[in-house]
Amino acid sequence: MRNRKRLSLGAMVAASAMALFAATGAQATTVTVGSVLPPGAAPKPFEAVQTFFNTALPEKGANLVSPVNGTVVRWRVQQAKGGPFYLRVLRPNGSGGYTAVGTSGPATPTGLGLQTFTANIPIRAGDLVGVDPTNASDEIGVSEVAGASFGFIFPPPVEGATVAPSGGKPGQEVALSAEVQPAPKITSVSPRSDSIAGGAKVTITGTDFAAASAVKFGSLPAASFAVVSETEITAVVPRSKKAGSVDISVTTVAGTSAATSSDRFNYKACIVPNLKKNKLKAAKKRLQNAGCKLGKVKKVDGATAKTGKVTKQNPKAGKTKVPGTKVNVTIER
Fold first, then answer.
1. What residues form DSSP beta bridges with 75?
2. Which of 10, 92, 139, 159 is the most buried (most CB within 10 A)?
């Protein structure tokens, strides 16, 4: 039996998150890749420890390759016997070869009927799935389907290696499919800005938000968030020490949303300007432009709003404060 790496801590956490989400009765929408599992499959021996993978699927609606980026969260086989079996993700290189880019943990069928196993394997659009046995005597369901075909790679490729198929079988389809949960995508954020003090509730709209495990504003975790549906999340803005734009991101078991212009959120602040040597009118305008307000004005030596210039200010220039912070000044002639 081949040695396999144990599941990483990240995979265990993701699996726990999936189990928790399933326990609530909610289900994330997935895309099926591979066989439609037609009836009439009969057990076929692997005859060698080699990878089987479908290379043509004629059925309407069948996805030979993944149409989306995401993560394989479940996979299925029929008429499988022996094992353990391993799901494998293969990436075509465009020249007839395939790169091994991911393998599941071991799964052993308990019967010849439909068997479903959990997984946590990243997959890209254009990748396809295959299955590895442990023994040459292991069997998997194969159906006679006109227009279908499957290939095999002997021996199974080492992770990261690119290899050419060892051969293929026309008119036959391997009873193997995988469910891919697409990575989340953000299409809009409302409102798109608020104070660095945080606390505002933001509605995040997009796709594939089910079972979200994290929402961040830049590098800051949301103060709290709630998954309303697969297309909507509400999140409370966390406090920030800096003003400016950040990308909001949503993370699920399928990955983290890619940064786009649609997920930008702007932290507003009062960046206290240097007011010294400015007359009061100019100082007030500078404060407004910086998101601040004029506070108390102390007049020294008979200074007036028209004749006096700022000699002192509090808070000092360069400080980042919440929008509308009042800046007190002293003006002298």
1. 117, 178
2. 139
CA 127 – CA 124 distance, rounded (Å): 6
User: Which tokens in the block code for residue 70?
Assistant: 């995401």
In one letter, which amino acid is 5? K
> Sign of the CA dihedral 218, 8, 23, 26?
positive
For 246-276, give one letter per residue: b (16+ CB within 10 A) or e. bbbbbbbbbbebeeeebbebebbbbbbbebe
CA distance 34 to 76: 10
Residue with tokens 């391993």: 86
Asked if 131 contacts 140 with a C-beta cutoff of 8 angstroms, the reply is yes
Alpha carbons 233 and 250: distance in angstroms, whole number: 9
Predicted TM-score (pTM) of this structure: 0.77
Give the DSSP letter of residue 23.
H
Would you call the peptide bond into 58 cis, given omega within 30 degrees of 0 as the criterion? Answer: no
In tens digits, the chain (333 residues) has pLDDT values of: 444 433 333 333 334 333 434 333 356 789 999 999 998 899 999 999 999 999 999 999 999 999 999 999 999 999 999 999 999 999 999 999 999 999 999 999 999 999 999 999 999 999 999 999 999 999 999 999 999 999 999 999 999 999 999 999 999 999 999 999 999 999 999 999 999 999 999 999 999 999 899 999 999 999 999 999 999 999 999 999 999 999 999 999 999 999 999 999 999 999 999 999 999 999 999 999 999 999 999 999 999 999 999 999 999 999 999 999 999 999 998
